[in-house]
């Protein structure tokens, strides 16, 4: 069995029992972490020099629409209403060919990997079985650890509060054909509309299907003007449907009582702070969750309007929540501090362990715990924006960016080394991505007079 020894790094384990190390080693056998600590004595290993590196678990993104990588940054000035009206209901999202979804998911996954994201949930918008299979092909080819969340088309007859349409039979087929085991790099979830975008009966049926398939069930819920009115989490709780396998994206408008229900009965919230603040979903629910006993997860969401890395999302999360509390204190004529209400370490946990828990993958990823998968990233501390290192957690959350990611390993396999992605044909990927973009906008038209270069 192939063995690797990561030697003499600053090791952030995200495992409270193990702790962190100023200088330590990580021993990997095959795809698994077997030991973490200083001066590990091991022979017959590939030694990976981690001197001058922060060694840590790969970042996890619990909510992303990967196919949109081929139309990235078209929505730099889009509100949520503009986004929904442009992507859904027979618009841009319906103009994709199967081959567009292949390259969209491949490009989106490689973007994530290059930035240190080793695990990602892909919240899909399925048009046909051919599209689904091409999405899966793109994810698999990238080498990312992922949850392919199988969804329905974006057409109006599906995204309507009275809709009884579903894709349950197709979800069962895809699960059986591609995801018969949960012990594989790519697993399956269900991306359902939830009770705010289809009929209650349909939402219940889809939740029950996800449980029958032993899959995480993710939905957009509790945001915008309707979030505080619908009280969907309360309804799910009354129906006895809450559980740790339910993931709610955004939840900016839900009540404190509903968050407490999730903390008690199970369920996760994926905060996507940058998109929520710019598009008008509502203020990120970070503090709402923490104040009511729930550690939120984090996600990128839509690369139509932001970049695909988690460093930015950690910064947005930290500063948005600190600003919320600081403004409350200033309004009361009180200066904030000395201690701030949210620490960098908590945010790093959101981007690792909390995200892993939301995807039901915390037994595999999220920390450098012996027995878990060797999803490991290395950040250079020799870069100008990183040295001298005084607080490595602060360096990761507040200072680091994608350019500092030196190496990325998924299941012990290197996908990036010395700042360069491995085993990819960048020219081919670029050509296919441009062809996909052109095909989509030739069918739809050029929104907002984009340059389309």
From TrEMBL:
SUPFAM superfamilies referenced in this protein's UniProt entry, alphabetically: Composite domain of metallo-dependent hydrolases (SSF51338), Metallo-dependent hydrolases (SSF51556)
Residues spanning the signal sequence: none
InterPro entries for the chain: Amidohydro-rel, Metal-dep_hydrolase_composite, Metal_Hydrolase, MTA/SAH_deaminase
Top-level taxon in the UniProt lineage: Bacteria
Domain Amidohydrolase-related positions: 54-415
GO MF term (any one): hydrolase activity, acting on carbon-nitrogen (but not peptide) bonds
Protein name per UniProt: Cytosine/adenosine deaminase
């Amino acid at each position: 069995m192939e063995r690797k020894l990561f030697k003499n790094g600053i090791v952030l384990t995200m495992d409270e029992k193990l702790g962190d190390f100023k200088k330590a080693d990580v021993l990997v056998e095959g795809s698994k972490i077997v030991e973490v600590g200083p001066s590990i004595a091991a022979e017959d290993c590939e030694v990976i020099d981690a001197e001058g590196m922060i060694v840590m678990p790969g970042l996890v993104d619990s909510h992303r629409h990967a196919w949109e990588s081929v139309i990235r940054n078209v929505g730099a000035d889009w509100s949520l209403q503009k986004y929904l009206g442009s992507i859904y209901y027979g618009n841009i999202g319906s103009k994709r060919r199967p081959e567009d979804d292949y390259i969209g998911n491949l490009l989106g996954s490689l973007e994530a990997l290059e930035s240190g994201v080793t695990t990602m949930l892909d919240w899909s918008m399925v048009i046909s079985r051919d599209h689904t299979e091409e999405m899966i092909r793109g994810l698999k080819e990238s080498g990312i650890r992922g949850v392919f969340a199988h969804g329905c088309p974006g057409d109006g007859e599906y995204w309507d509060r009275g809709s009884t349409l579903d894709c349950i039979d197709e979800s069962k087929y895809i699960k059986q054909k591609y995801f018969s085991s949960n012990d594989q790099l790519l697993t399956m979830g269900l991306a359902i509309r939830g009770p705010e975008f289809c009929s209650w009966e349909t939402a219940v049926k889809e939740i029950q299907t996800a449980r029958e398939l032993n899959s995480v069930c993710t939905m957009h819920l509790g945001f915008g003007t309707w979030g505080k009115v619908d009280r969907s989490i309360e309804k799910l709780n009354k129906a006895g449907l809450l559980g740790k396998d339910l993931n709610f994206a955004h939840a900016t408008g839900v009540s404190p009582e509903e968050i407490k229900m999730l903390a008690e009965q199970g369920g996760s919230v994926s905060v996507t702070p940058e998109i929520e603040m710019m598009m008008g979903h509502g203020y990120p629910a970070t503090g709402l969750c923490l104040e009511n006993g729930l550690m939120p997860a984090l996600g990128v969401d839509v690369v139509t309007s932001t970049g695909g890395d988690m460093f930015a999302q950690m910064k947005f999360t930290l500063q948005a929540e600190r600003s919320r509390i600081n403004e409350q204190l200033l309004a009361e004529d009180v200066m904030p501090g000395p201690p701030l209400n949210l620490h960098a370490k908590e945010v790093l946990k959101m981007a690792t362990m909390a995200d892993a828990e939301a995807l039901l993958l915390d037994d595999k990823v999220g920390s450098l715990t012996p027995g878990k998968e060797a999803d490991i990233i290395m950040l250079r501390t020799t870069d100008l924006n990183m040295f001298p290192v005084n607080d490595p957690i602060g360096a990761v959350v507040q200072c680091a960016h994608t350019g500092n990611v030196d190496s990325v390993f998924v299941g012990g396999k290197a996908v990036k080394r010395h700042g360069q992605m491995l085993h990819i044909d960048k020219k081919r990927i670029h050509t296919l991505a441009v062809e996909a973009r052109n095909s989509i906008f030739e069918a739809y038209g050029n929104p907002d007079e984009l340059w389309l270069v």
